[in-house]
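--- STAGE predict ---
source: upstream dedup step, 1 unique chain passed
mode: sequence only
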Amino acid sequence: MAEQTNTASSRRSSASRKPKKNQIPYGFLTVAFIIIVALLLNLKSTTVAFFWLTGNIFGFILQKGRFCFTASMRDPYLTGSTSITRAVIVTFAVTTIGFTAIKYGFASSGMPIPGMSYVAPISLATVIGAFIFGVGMVIAGGCASGTLMRVGEGFIMNTIAFLFFMVGSLWGAHDFGWWKENFISKGSSIFLPDIFGWLGAVVLQLGVLLILYVVAEQYEKKRGASH
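--- STAGE serialize ---
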């Protein structure tokens, strides 16, 4: 009797479910729209068209991979899971090798190293800014990339966060000169290859990342988090 009741209720629940709409036509329309816009932008600027295509590709990968820096910092505390944390560490390791190869190639050929002007000073302002940003991104439910991704998915709260993200960015850009002169420039710029050499810098950074990866893995096992 109980088995018949469960079978009947499962049939009712199956009948009450609406069939899922076929999303493939929407996917083809979206791809066609992206290509058409890229071709139109290419008539004006190849660079803008390239940015449009790479931005869409990056957004697609970001959304499907659920990659979020906020989750990498938040999940270990809330759920004990460090899968995204370890993914971020692996990303840092890959980019360390890639960017070192590029920069070393420029340095060995005597050409100016690209990005050297972006080695920003580190000071107490960096610590304070990181803390404020960390609190804000957890409350907002996403960092810059995570917020953009979830706005595309239609999350209302992230749309609100995105609006204030723009306000804060404009305000910060307006006052950046004052902050740089009075606080940021007071720190010291550190470029590891200048201190340890290219090989030493890579080994040191990869070693630190390896330690962090092992610590994150052991932490998850200790917390007994389930994926």
